[in-house]
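MgtC/SapB family protein
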Amino acid sequence: MGEKEIFIRLVLALIIGGVTGIERERLNKFAGFRTHILVSLGSCISSIISLELFLQYNGVANLDPARLSAQVLSGIGFLGAGTILKTSGGVRGLTTAAGIWSTACIGIAIGYGYYFLAIVSWIFLLVVLCVLKYIDMLYKKKRSESVVLTIKDNEAIPRIMEILDEMNLDTKKFDIEKKSSNLVLKFTFDNGSKEDRMEFLGKVASIQSKIAIEYTS
């Protein structure tokens, strides 16, 4: 493999990693522009080294050209795990972690010289990250419903949390604000049926406190 070919593969890996990282960067994800470039470049380098070693020593030693790349993919798992965060609203960062792993795979494909596979895979990756996310957001919006509870008695909050736990209802974007002498709880249901949610609101309304309920689908 000549120096020109190596240069082309590294530049292509840099471009693909950079553009993919920009999409994550604009959404303020943990792994962004530079991280994706480094992942793509590193994977490409490992593939080039594996291929060069195989071509150079296959006559005198039994070498597996995919062995080094396999170790890279295993190592990417640790990097991806660092982008996953468990919050009160659920688990975040899974898409970014999967994107890092996919970017590494594309970098490996470039390193081995599979340009068509790498570019088509990259296009599909961008479609998933940039286009399909709107379909996913629309689906989640249809499933989720928001609630605003205005509470005059602070002691009602533990009981509300108990009801959520008893009914196994998950919430996201949970916020508590203080307005005058009242507390305002804002959250979005993340699971459960329409009947479960209405049952929850009925139980909340039965608490011995004056609670104003605003429910939006």
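thats it. The two ends are 60 Å apart (CA to CA). The mean pLDDT is 76. bye
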